[in-house]
C-alpha cells in the first residue's frame, strides 16, 4: 500500500495535469478543490475513474458525498484509508 503522502501527491499531480495554469504551491492537501473549481463537473467522472484505478476498488457514484471530494485529505480518508 502506498503511503498517504504518495497517494495525495498522485491526486495532486493528476489535478495539476488537468489544470496547468494552477499554482502548484496553492494546491495542498487541505485546499477545497470544489470551491476553488480545481475539480469541476467536467473533470469529476475522469477523477472518479482515476481514484478507482488508484484504490483498486469501485466507487459507487450513487453513494458519493460531495464532502468526500472537497480536499485531497478527505479523498484519502474516504477512499484509501483503512477503516475497521
What topology does this entry show?
Elements lengths: L3 H15 L22 H15 L16 H8 L5
Give a verbal description of the structure.
With 84 residues, the chain is mainly α. The protein has one domain: ACP-like (Non-ribosomal Peptide Synthetase Peptidyl Carrier Protein, Chain A), CATH 1.10.1200. It contains three helices and no strands. It is globular and about 30 Å long.
Count the DSSP helices: 3
Mean of pLDDT: 92
> Roughly how many Å apart are the termini?
16 Å
What is the 3D form?
A: globular
Core attributes:
84 residues, Non-ribosomal Peptide Synthetase Peptidyl Carrier Protein, Chain A
Structure at a glance:
By secondary structure, the protein is mostly helical. It contains 3 helices and no strands. It has a single domain, classed as Orthogonal Bundle (Non-ribosomal Peptide Synthetase Peptidyl Carrier Protein, Chain A).
Amino acid at each position: 500500500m502506498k503511503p498517504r503522502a504518495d497517494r495525495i501527491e498522485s491526486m495532486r499531480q493528476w489535478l495539476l495535469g488537468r489544470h496547468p495554469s494552477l499554482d502548484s504551491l496553492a494546491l495542498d492537501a487541505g485546499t477545497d478543490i470544489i470551491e476553488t473549481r480545481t475539480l469541476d463537473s467536467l473533470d469529476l467522472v475522469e477523477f472518479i475513474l482515476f481514484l478507482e484505478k488508484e484504490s483498486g476498488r469501485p466507487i459507487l457514484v450513487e453513494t458519493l458525498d460531495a464532502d468526500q471530494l472537497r480536499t485531497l485529505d478527505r479523498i484519502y480518508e474516504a477512499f484509501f484509508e483503512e477503516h475497521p
